[in-house]
Design a protein that fits this description.
The protein contains 7 helices and 4 strands, in the order αααββαββααα. The chain has 182 residues and is an alpha+beta fold. The strands form 2 sheets. Strands 1-2 form a two-stranded antiparallel ribbon. A hairpin with a 4-residue loop joins β1 and β2. The longest helix has 30 residues.
Length: 182
Amino acid sequence: MSEKLQNPKMRLEWKGKEIADALAKHMVQNLYRAAATLTNMVKENLSEPTSSSGPSQPGEFPHANTGLVRNSIFFQVDEEKLTGIVGTQSIVGLWLEHGLVEGYGITEIFPTDAQYLSWIDSASGERMFAKSVRAIMRRSFLRRTLDENRKEMKAILTRKLGKQASVQFASKSESGPAKEEG
C-alpha cells in the first residue's frame, strides 16, 4: 500500500561530488593496501634461505642467498590512474622472473668482479664455475605470487565502503533528513 504525501514540497540535497571523492579516496586506499600486501607476500616467498635448505628446486620460489632480490622488491601506486606496480629493481630479480633468454635484452651473463661466475648446482650440490652463462630458466616469483593470491587481491581491491562512511553522508546534511515543508 503506497502513501501519498500531504505536501509534495520536499528538499533533496545532492552530495554527488562528496560521495565521488570519498569513493575515489577509498579505492586509492584499497590499491595501496593490495600493493603493500602483495609486496609482503613476494618478500615472504623469497625468504627461504639457501644456507639451510639448499638451492631452490624447479617449481619452488627462488631461495634467498644474499637477500638482494628480496630487498629490491617495491611497490608504486599512481593515484590518478588507479594503478599499482609491484616489482624488483634488481637485474638478478629480472633474470629470475623472466629467465635469461632472447627477447629480454640480455642473452649472456659475464662476471664483473672476478674471472669466473660461481654457483652451487641444484642437482649435484657442487660449486660450479663458468666464464659466462647463456641460459637461466625462468623462476617467476612476482607473477606467480600474484597468480596464487589473485582471490585475496580481488577481495582487498573490492572491499566496500563501510557503514561508517554511509552514515557520515546521511548525517552531513545541514538541514537533516528531508522533511515536508508546511
